[in-house]
């Protein structure tokens, strides 16, 4: 009989590490855009298909697995999925053609669809509602930390040993962490911090009702999806811009891209989560107002920054803009989890991951298409910079949805709390 720990902080550390590994395996392709383009003779629009290949199976399979996760031991799915996507990452390094690489990326997406939908549900069951903002924000440190490791480590390995070795080495941590989760992390009791919650598993229609019929939740989903789409697109091509505009090597470009995408975003994710918990109990509007104001300022700043000809000025301004634009991650997930019934949370996370999966494919594709179009008249470097500037301005649209969500959040939160013990088997129970 395996003796596993029920420590909330151990569970958070292990699950956050797994999520970080998943983001490394997802984002490491960003620093490999130029060598992959060169080897297979691709355009910006074509190479962006790697993002779609990841999302293709990830979206559908993630929702199916999430419904299973509402009923079975979630740590088993997390462990198995982590090992599976790590093996698929290794397969990327063995790809002998462009099609084989796309198929391997589909395998990574499928593995993450198995391993990641239950992670927020587990963390939400380990921590009470008034501590979930910080806890899930710590979990959502995985994108910036994964971006740093993927960009910096991936760039150096690719420059020294080639892009194929980068995939092979990136697969190792996930294989280790999958076994760590299996042997050391206990499964928490569902809803242990949500007194009165029903043990019934609500149908998916009830989950969709809460996500898209509650005005605050609907606008949080739309706003965060737009922000995610822009973030994925901008990060996908940032290292490429460093190579084209400033003639940097892959290692140096990866270092700058990793630092920009990690440290400011990490500080922002944790900071907004802490601020949300501090002010949200007094006024739930804070959970949406904080990212709304941040992106209102950060979006235009990014557009200004990315077109600067001086590298130091560009990096400095982008650093500040990234701090402002990525704070939505943890606080949005935490707020949406608080709006869910305990046995809705894995499904809700999977639906959101599906939405963000589409965003993760759409962002690089739109930016790649715009870059190719502008490059005909502006050149490859300037065309990409202008396309990224347009992406920065897109954060204003995302900000508008967060302002709308802030206005409706207090009433929606009160309605959900008054229905906490209901089985949510219909649309009226969903709100």
From TrEMBL:
A Pfam family hit: MFS_1
Highest taxon in the source lineage: Bacteria
Keywords: Membrane, Transmembrane, Transmembrane helix, Transport
Membrane topology category: Multi-pass membrane protein
Cellular component aspect of the GO annotation: membrane
Compartment(s): Membrane
Membrane-crossing residue ranges in chain numbering: 9-29, 49-68, 75-96, 102-122, 134-157, 163-185, 220-243, 255-275, 287-305, 311-336, 348-371, 383-404
Gene3D superfamilies registered for this protein in UniProt: MFS general substrate transporter like domains
UniProt GO molecular function: transmembrane transporter activity
Domain named Major facilitator superfamily (MFS) profile: residues: 11-409
Name listed for the protein in its UniProt record: MFS transporter
Organism lineage string: Bacteria, Pseudomonadati, Pseudomonadota, Alphaproteobacteria, Sphingomonadales
């Amino acid at each position: 009989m395996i003796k596993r720990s029920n420590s909330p902080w151990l569970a958070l550390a292990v699950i956050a590490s797994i999520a970080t590994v998943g983001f490394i395996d997802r984002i490491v392709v960003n620093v490999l855009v130029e060598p992959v383009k060169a080897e297979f003779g691709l355009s910006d629009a074509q190479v962006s298909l790697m993002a779609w290949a990841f999302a293709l199976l990830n979206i559908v399979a993630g929702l199916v697995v999430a419904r299973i996760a509402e009923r079975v031991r979630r740590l088993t799915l997390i462990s198995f999925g982590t090992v599976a996507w790590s093996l698929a990452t290794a397969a990327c390094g063995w790809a002998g053609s462009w099609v084989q690489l796309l198929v391997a990326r589909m395998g990574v997406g499928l593995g993450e669809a198995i391993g990641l939908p239950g992670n927020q549900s587990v963390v939400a069951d380990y921590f009470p509602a008034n501590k979930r903002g910080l806890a899930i924000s710590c979990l959502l440190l995985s994108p910036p930390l994964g971006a740093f490791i993927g960009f910096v480590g991936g760039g150096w390995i690719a420059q020294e040993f080639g892009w194929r070795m980068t995939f092979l080495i990136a697969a190792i941590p996930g294989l280790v962490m999958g076994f760590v989760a299996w042997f050391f992390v206990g499964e928490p009791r569902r809803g242990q911090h949500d007194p009165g919650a029903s043990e019934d598993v609500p149908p998916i229609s009830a989950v969709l009702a809460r996500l898209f019929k509650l005005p605050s939740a609907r606008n949080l989903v739309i706003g965060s999806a737009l922000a995610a789409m822009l973030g994925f697109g901008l990060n996908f091509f940032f290292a490429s811009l460093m190579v084209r505009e400033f003639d940097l090597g892959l290692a140096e470009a990866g270092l700058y891209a990793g630092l920009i995408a990690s440290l400011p975003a990490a500080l922002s994710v944790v900071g907004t989560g802490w601020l949300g918990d501090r002010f949200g109990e007094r006024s739930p509007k804070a959970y949406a107002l904080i990212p709304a104001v941040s992106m209102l300022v950060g979006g235009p700043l990014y557009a200004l920054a990315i077109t600067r000809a001086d590298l130091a000025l560009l990096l400095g301004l982008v650093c500040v803009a990234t701090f402002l634009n990525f704070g939505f991650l943890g606080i949005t997930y935490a707020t949406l989890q608080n709006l869910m019934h305990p046995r809705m949370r894995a499904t809700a996370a999977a639906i959101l991951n599906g939405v963000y999966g589409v965003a993760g494919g759409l962002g690089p594709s739109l930016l790649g298409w715009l870059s190719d179009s502008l490059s005909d008249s502006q050149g490859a470097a300037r065309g990409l910079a202008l396309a990224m500037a347009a992406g920065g301005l897109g954060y204003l649209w995302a900000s508008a949805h967060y302002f709308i969500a802030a206005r409706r959040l207090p009433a929606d939160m009160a309605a959900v709390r008054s229905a906490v013990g209901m089985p949510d088997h219909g649309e009226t129970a969903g709100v």
